[in-house]
Design goal:
Blueprint: E1 2-5, E2 7-9, E3 19-21, E4 26-28, H1 29-39, E5 51-54, H2 68-75, E6 80-84, H3 90-106, H4 110-122, E7 127-129, E8 132-134, E9 140-142, E10 151-153, H5 157-160, E11 163-167
Parallel strand pairs: 1-5, 5-6
Antiparallel strand pairs: 2-3, 3-4, 6-11, 7-8, 7-10, 8-9
Helix pairs in contact: 3-4
């Protein structure tokens, strides 16, 4: 499994205009395809079960790349990808990813882990309280000191509905 928690931008048209932002560099779609070939991800025995693209619009695409970065990753040999369809909240995504990984440990497959995560968020079992993200199992993830204190429910679809699973959901 590979998790990329970063920023990304998909631009309609020339694929080389779209990128995943790393600290001081951008990985463009043609580069992603080359990395995939170089690492052997484009074979039937790809070692990558899941690529998590925890960034905005990573499943958004156009006629050149129908499912954006996630679709191209699956096309390149990654077995499945979790990615977003629109702009996402950093705080909501942190909570969603924490809950998703917790659910992934206890459910039968990746799609069910995502579904359970979304349901837990919808029913306010995942929330922000006192500078912590509180997962449904009671685990508390500390937030940085500069986050404002207070309570935030994450039941609105804005926080959990953007993410979709592409590829093999088992």
């Amino acid at each position: 499994m590979i998790h990329l928690g970063t920023h990304a931008e998909f631009k309609v048209g020339d694929l080389s205009d779209s990128y995943i932002q790393f600290y001081d560099d951008r990985l463009r779609i043609p580069q992603l395809q080359k990395v995939s070939e170089d690492l052997g991800w484009n074979t039937d025995d790809s070692p990558i079960e899941l690529l998590v693209l925890s960034a905005c619009e990573t499943a958004l695409g156009d006629k050149e790349a129908e499912l954006g970065f996630a679709g191209l990753a699956v096309q390149a040999g990654v077995k499945s990808a979790l990615a977003s369809l629109w702009y996402v909240s950093d705080l909501g995504t942190l909570a969603l990813m924490g809950e998703f990984y917790d659910q992934l440990d206890t459910t039968l497959n990746k799609a069910e882990a995502l579904r359970q995560t979304q349901l837990k968020m919808l029913h306010s079992n995942v929330k922000v309280d006192s500078k912590q993200v509180k997962l449904s199992n009671g685990t508390a993830l500390d937030l940085p000191a500069d986050f404002p204190d207070g309570t935030l429910t994450l039941d609105h679809p804005y926080f959990w509905s953007s993410f979709t699973m592409i590829g093999n959901w088992n």
